[in-house]
Design a protein that fits this description.
about 375 residues, FAD/NAD(P)-binding domain, 5-stranded parallel β-sheet, 4-stranded parallel β-sheet, 8 helices, binds flavin-adenine dinucleotide
Length: about 375
């Protein structure tokens, strides 16, 4: 029986598993990831307020794998030999017939002094360390920012930084110590969050003004030091810096022979196929796929792409043309700890819903609903 291999137990990889089984595929599936867990990044924003712990965000997958009849190979992919149909891991080399790559992105940590900034994209530990430092501070300046990958415009993630910024503002107000802190938002982009649409940028900047959050925009970043963020437009004094760097693709892909975009991602087509390599698909944050310049690097997009990759994989296996294309859809609730603002964008329309309490509840409900499948 053909071996289906999936790299990654994140959003894209697990949606691929569910879709394969839902479509009736009974072929053996092997999924490779360092640990049999799903890490639920979207709720990291609630760690500073003590609303989520590591255990809340790290979902064990053993039961899910058993239910779906998936063999989990505990390992980290080190290389791929597409022509030999082999994946090399730090725990052995495995053969495959069909491969779905969903191993996520890597963050570019090249700026000098980056070790002085906390990077929440790396998961629970840095976010908790940041939260503990913030809890111990009696006052000072807190800087929040995000960067990009100049060679891959879609490879940036600003949404969660807006959420940390507004969430921490709300938390400090609730703790009655907001007056002891200055909050500064910085971005090399003059219109940060532009991918969410022009109206959203305006709304986000208006919120910052309303809550006395200083902005430092449009200046190329030079680096960080213990008490400052350095930009070409001057320094920002900062006692605590939260920074989301731009993204690039998986390190192991570089020497694999797969087509790599200028920004370091694995190239795919509108059907999530890796051109020139039959039976190999790429989805989610690892991928560089065709679409508008605001094509989001989001869990939701990884899910949509994984469904498309599976449908095409099964079509090709049945000798039919792989014609399924993924839908481009940005859905983002910018949470502020007690409320949320909704941005919805497709190539045809953009919708912005103002800050409402019900959207905070919606984000909490969605987390429960999404994770229920894996528990
Ligand atoms: C703080 C934060 C908040 C976010 N909020 C939202 C949100 O509200 N909504 C939204 O839609 N998106 C959100 N995102 C983005 C979302 O988390 C990502 O877009 C999503 O995780 C991408 O899914 P993926 O499957 O491509 O990769 P991932 O979810 O990153 O999964 C990658 C998997 O591959 C594994 N892996 C990595 N390297 C290897 C290797 N070499 N070998 C084997 N396995 C490997 C990893 O362990 C992991 O299991 C947020 C991200 C962050 C950081």
């Amino acid at each position: 029986m053909p071996q289906i291999m999936i790299i990654g137990s994140g959003f894209g990889g697990l949606t691929a598993v569910k879709t394969l089984r839902k479509q009736g595929c009974r072929d053996p599936i092997t999924l490779i990831s360092p640990r049999p867990v799903l890490f639920y990044y979207p709720s990291l924003i609630w760690v500073p307020a003590g609303l989520r712990s590591e255990a809340d965000l790290t979902i064990p997958l053993k039961k899910f794998f058993k239910r779906e009849d998936v063999r989990h190979h505990e390992g980290t992919v080190m290389g791929l030999y597409p022509n030999e149909r082999q994946v090399k891991t730090d725990n052995g080399t495995l053969a495959f017939d069909k491969l779905i790559i969903a191993s996520g992105g890597r963050f570019i940590k090249k700026l000098p002094g980056i070790e002085h900034a906390y990077t929440p994209c790396e998961g629970y530990e840095p976010t908790k360390a940041y939260s503990d430092r913030l809890a111990a501070l009696e006052g000072g300046t807190l800087a929040f920012g995000f960067g990009g990958n100049p060679k891959e415009p879609a490879a940036m993630r600003g949404g969660p930084i807006f959420e940390f910024l507004f969430g921490i503002d709300t938390m400090l107000r609730k703790q009655k110590r907001r007056n002891k802190f200055e909050l500064v938002f910085f971005s090399p982009a003059p219109e940060p969050g532009k991918r969410l649409g022009v109206k959203a940028v305006k709304a986000l900047l208006n919120e910052m003004e309303k809550y006395q959050i200083r902005t430092h925009l449009g200046h190329k970043m030079k680096g960080f030091s213990e008490n400052a963020v350095h930009t070409e437009g001057g320094d920002i004094q900062s006692d605590l810096t939260l920074f989301m760097p731009g993204m690039t693709g998986p390190a192991w892909a570089a020497n694999s022979g797969l087509p790599i975009s200028e920004g370091g991602m694995i190239k795919g087509d509108a059907h999530c196929r890796v051109p020139g390599f039959e039976g190999i698909y790429v989805v989610g944050d690892s991928s560089s796929l065709p679409g508008p310049d605001w094509l989001p690097k989001q869990a939701h997009m990884a899910d949509l792409q994984a469904v498309t990759a599976v449908k095409n994989l099964l079509a090709e296996k049945a000798g039919q043309p792989a014609e399924h294309q993924f839908k481009t859809e940005l859905i983002c609730i910018v949470d502020t700890l007690d409320k949320g603002m909704l941005v919805y964008r497709t190539p045809k329309r953009t919708m912005l819903m103002p800050k409402l309490r019900v959207l905070n509840w919606a984000k909490r409900f969605f987390e429960w609903h999404y994770l229920r499948t894996y528990r």
